[in-house]
Write a structure and sequence with these properties.
The protein is mostly helical and 416 residues long. The chain has helices at residues 2-28, 33-68, 72-76, 78-105, 118-129, 133-140, 145-150, 154-169, 173-198, 201-216, 221-250, 253-260, 262-271, 278-288, 292-305, 308-324, 331-344, 354-365, 373-405. Helix 10 (201-216) crosses helix 19 (373-405) and helix 14 packs across helix 15. It is globular, with a radius of gyration of 22 Å. This is Cation:dicarboxylase symporter family transporter. Pfam families: SDF. The chain crosses the membrane at residues 7-26, 46-71, 83-105, 154-172, 193-214, 226-250, 319-344, 356-379. Keywords: Cell membrane, Membrane, Transmembrane, Transmembrane helix, Transport. It is found in: Cell membrane.
């Protein structure tokens, strides 16, 4: 928590310094704005490349471990099936709400920014617009895992990871356990690397903001105000949908659940990490009346497969970056992006800013400049507060709903 606060402060300081430097160049030395922007933008490029470096191993290890550990579904049967149906439905609804509202509100159309490396972006756009069924199959099915790793083809890595995870789950614990444990350790090590790389974020912010302000002036700050307003409005709509579904299933007990989880919700909001409240959430759900076996099975799965706030943010942020660079995407492309995000986001842990990794990969895949992620990084902390709290709400509702369907929800709040 202290580390997150220090990083937040460092990003704010970098933002202020970047604005100051960029504003000085824009007003005092306009003739130097273009070369200055080109050079200082390299700080942002370093940060983006560091993030891209860990995309493939992070998706591979987290997804293999998640799928391999899902062998429990066969033992628990109905509970696992109902849980996965909830996770898939909630994820699709969250992604769809983000997609509809970002298209309706159009926060990225406040201003337009010039596309860096326009030639490469045009090439990517042409290749994505001419997306045939044959191209799609080639894009999804890997010819070589190593080629998929080398080119950061996330969908191909997902396909291999799912097949490998299922194979491990069916090998039997004696054979699979050492491999799963190894990948689990690697996944945790890579997530540790995410923490280290995020400390380069202030430099990336300074470079990106200074370059943007030097080129575009102070008009860019209209974007941040509109972006936050529209994102939290979209988050409010998602909360209404989740709570309405929760009320239809739990009835008046929904209000008891909200009282129970108010502390975990506030902790997630302040720390920007839904994982920070995991032990407390287990305790409160059991006190609410959920069966402890159901809680211990569904909640860990939910932390990988049911991050509703993060899912909504992925479509919202990806289309926002496309809008701000003036890239028009067809309905077909946007639906494809939604399905891609549905697959690629599974298995990513609920740690701060992990969803940014997937957004960078998706932007690259659809011809949207991944450098755009640096533009929303300065205010991502505020967005992360809202989406982390939403992730906790979604997982609490999923666990309570499945407990109710299984007849395992006590009518009274009890002891652990």
């Amino acid at each position: 928590m202290k580390g997150q606060n220090k990083l937040f402060i460092a990003i704010i300081v970098a933002l202020v310094v970047g604005v100051g430097i960029g504003g000085l160049v824009h007003t005092q030395y306009p003739e130097s704005a273009e070369p200055f922007s080109k050079n200082i933008k390299l700080l942002g490029t370093i940060f983006i490349r560091l993030v891209q470096m860990i995309i493939a191993p992070l998706v591979f290890t987290t997804l293999v471990v998640g799928i391999a550990k899902m062998s429990d579904i066969k033992m628990i049967g109905r509970v696992g099936t109902k849980a996965m149906l909830w996770f898939i439905s909630a994820s699709l609804i969250s992604l769809f709400i983000g997609l509809v509202l970002v298209n309706w509100l159009e926060p990225g159309h406040v201003t337009k920014l010039p596309i860096q490396d326009a030639a490469s972006a045009d090439e990517l756009l042409k290749s994505s617009k001419g997306f045939s069924l044959e191209d799609f199959v080639k894009h999804v099915i890997p010819k070589s895992l190593f080629e998929a790793f080398a080119t950061n083809e996330v969908l191909q890595i997902v396909v291999f990871s799912i097949m490998f995870g299922v194979a491990l789950a069916n090998l039997g614990e004696e054979y699979a356990q050492p491999v799963v444990k190894l990948f689990d350790i690697i996944a945790h090590a890579i997530l540790k690397m995410v923490g280290y790389i995020m400390w380069f974020a202030p430099l990336g912010v300074l470079g990106a903001i200074a370059a943007v302000v030097a080129t575009n002036g102070f008009e860019i700050f209209k974007v941040y105000a509109v972006y936050l307003r529209d994102f939290f409005f979209a988050l409010g709509i998602l909360w209404l949908v989740l709570l309405l579904v929760g009320y239809l299933i739990l009835g008046n007990r929904l209000f008891d659940l909200l009282k129970r989880i108010k502390a975990p919700l506030l902790i997630a909001f302040s720390t920007t990490s839904s994982e920070a409240v995991f032990p407390k959430l287990v305790e409160e759900l059991e006190r609410f009346g959920c069966n402890n076996r159901v809680v211990s099975f569904i909640l860990p799965l939910g932390y990988s497969f049911n991050l509703d706030g993060s899912m909504m943010y992925m479509t919202f942020a990806s289309i926002f970056i496309a809008q701000i660079y003036g890239i028009e995407m067809s309905i077909g492309q946007q639906i494809t992006m939604l399905l891609v995000l549905m697959l690629t986001s599974k298995g990513i842990a609920g740690v701060p800013r992990a969803s940014l990794v997937i957004i960078v990969a998706t932007c690259s895949m659809f011809g949207i400049p991944p450098e755009g992620i640096a533009l929303i990084l300065p205010i991502d902390h505020f967005c992360d507060m809202g989406r982390s709290m939403t992730n906790v709400l979604g997982n609490a509702l999923a666990t309570s709903a499945v407990s109710k369907w299984e007849g395992e929800l006590s009518d009274h709040g009890g002891e652990l």
